[in-house]
Amino acid sequence: MSAPPQSPNFPIDVRGGRRITVNRVGGTALRVDLEDGSFDNDALAAMPALTLKANPANGAGQPQDVTPNVAKQVLGLNKVSNTTDAEKATEGNPVGDAIKGAKVYAQAGTGAVNKLIAEKLQGMYVLPEEFGVAAPDGDATAGFNAAAATGRKVLLLERPYKGTQFVMPSNTQGLVGLGDNSALIGGYGGDAANHILVVGDGTNDHWNGVFENFKFASLVNRTGGSAVLMQRTRNATMRNVRPGDLKDLYSGAATGKFLFNGVTWIDFYHARMTGCDMAGFNNDGLTIAGPNFGAEFTWDGGAEIIQSARHAVHVAGGAGGVKFLSGGAALARNGLVTSTAMAPGKPNPQVFSGSQFNWDTCIDYAVLINSASIIDFLADTLWISSSGKNALNAPIAGAVGCGLTVADGQVAGAIIDIGRLAAKFCTGTAAVFSGGICRVGGGEASFNSGNGVAVNGTVVSFKANDISAIYNTAYGFYADPALVTAAKAGTKQLTLRDIEAFGNTAGNSTGLSGAPTGAYSVQGCIGLPNA
To answer: Checking phi first, is residue 174 left (phi over 0); if not, alpha (psi -120 to 50) or beta?
Structure first.
């Protein structure tokens, strides 16, 4: 290899104003550094795609693409080559050759070992392009699956990867995209029913996977499968993964090309989704089913699940510690549904809805707790609005329009604990309690086209205080006479404190009567018969 030109360094501008510098450290040896003295994952990942054209006049290196556009996509280069086509075709570039064999110099310390850049890269990302990926309109399935089979973390460039079904084995570290245009797109060849991405083989554990910064879309309207099936994952994290992109939904790009299901988690332990906006589903947005205790799931980051033809969220059995901390779900037939459909006989131990999460504009139920599907349902504040209405706030014919429904037949000891209820503008009853041990610590159930709060005789216990139930078209507070009778007999409980009810069309309350006795007590209320 010929000696490099005699100049102190060869800088290249990279994203964020940081620079790669090729420094001569003695003789013909070269070292590749970032200006802050560190190595950058994105910069290192791009190195195989870069050569440097040495300019004898000033020693400034100029980037060239040896794989079309790869270097610019990975690094976001600020400078472009000003060499001629003939110069670009010149091979044997001394600086480029030196980088390919340059040492990565470790920090000083006992046992520090120098490594070749190529060796360093092989322990990080792998590109589907390394295994042959067709042009953007071609089939990328084989190239992606070959890259994933290496076990390394797969890097998606800012381009579409179209295919039938992408597969990541249980030993794959994860999948990382570079931004808005990094996309896995299903439906190649007309397929409408496969999962677009399958993670894990369903038999072996998939540990510590990280998935971030890419989206899913489809070439066709989908009739089955999920955007991504996560099976037997352990301690997995999704960040800014968008199954069905809001931008595509609002721009109309997704019209007639909806996904079927969004993200489906099966037989998992400890999963997190942060900032993962989801939109446009012919069935369910998010489905969660675990092996039982230990299947902890957290949703956070203010993301929303928009427009699901069936359920926005289905907690489908055996999932414990399911937490929705911030964000929302809207424009679904049902917002949150709990069941044991995917894990028969295994109720979900705990489901939690945080004060910064809302269930909005759902056709039938904002929150539906099915029979024997829950052990504990907890909510700091349960935000529910406009059930039974469409995006234009117009009532939908035939909609149930209920805010919260807790079905009867809950497991023994099931607790429904709502710190604050905020249920308004529904076309049906704001909150119906038919099972479990129920408590509401405050809030309002007002301006609904039905009852404010309805409590049926199949509950075990109902306690509420400081609720406003006003201007509903039925009753402000409905109590099943059978519950009142049982509570007075001491076999069930009904305790109401500081409830206000006025302006309700059918009456402020019904079913409440008589003096406090047994476990029946109504005190400090306005519009309700205190006893």
So the answer is: left
Give every CB contact of residue 19 below 8 A, 6+ residues apart in sequence.
Answer: 11, 12, 13, 34, 35
Cβ neighbors of 397 (< 8 A, separation 6 or more) are none
**Rounded Cα distance, 237 and 209, in Å:** 6
Provide the 10 A C-beta neighbour count for residue 523: 14
- pLDDT of the residue at 292: 62
Low-confidence stretches of the chain (pLDDT < 70) are 1-123, 292-294
Contacts of 3 (CB under 8 A, 6+ apart): 28, 94
Q: Tell me what pLDDT residue 63 has.
A: 36
Of 400, 395, 398, 323, which Cα lies nearest the Cα of 368? Answer: 400
- Distance (Å, whole) CA 437 – CA 420: 16
Q: What is the signed CA dihedral for 384, 390, 395, 398, rounded to 10 degrees?
A: -100
Domain ranges of the chain: 119-249+256-408
Q: 336, 424, 428, 411: which is closest to 379 by C-alpha? A: 336
Could you report how far apart the first and last alpha carbons of the chain are, in Å?
Answer: 97
Among 3.40.630.30, 3.40.50.1100, 1.10.760.10, 2.160.20.10, name the CATH number for the domain at 119-249+256-408: 2.160.20.10
For residues 183 and 435, what is the distance between their CA atoms, to the nearest angstrom?
A: 44
2 three-class SS: coil
Q: What is the pLDDT of residue 51?
A: 35
Give residues with Cβ within 8 angstroms of 219, minimum separation 6.
162, 185, 186, 187, 188, 257
What is the chain's percent helix, strand, coil content, to nearest 5? 10, 45, 45
Contact 138, 160 (CB under 8 A): no
The owner of tokens 């039905």 is 450
Cβ-based neighbour number of residue 192 at 10 Å: 17
Tokens 């052990």 label which residue? 375
Contacts of 124 (CB under 8 A, 6+ apart): 41, 44, 45, 152, 153
pLDDT at 204: 94
Looking at the whole model, is its pTM more than 0.85? no
- Name the DSSP class of 103: E
Q: How does strand 443-446 pair with strand 467-470?
A: parallel
Quickly list H helices, 181-309.
246-251
Residues 6+ positions from 108 with CB-CB distance below 8 Å: none
Q: How many residues does the chain have?
A: 531
- Evaluate whether 479 touches 509 at the Cβ level (below 8 Å): yes
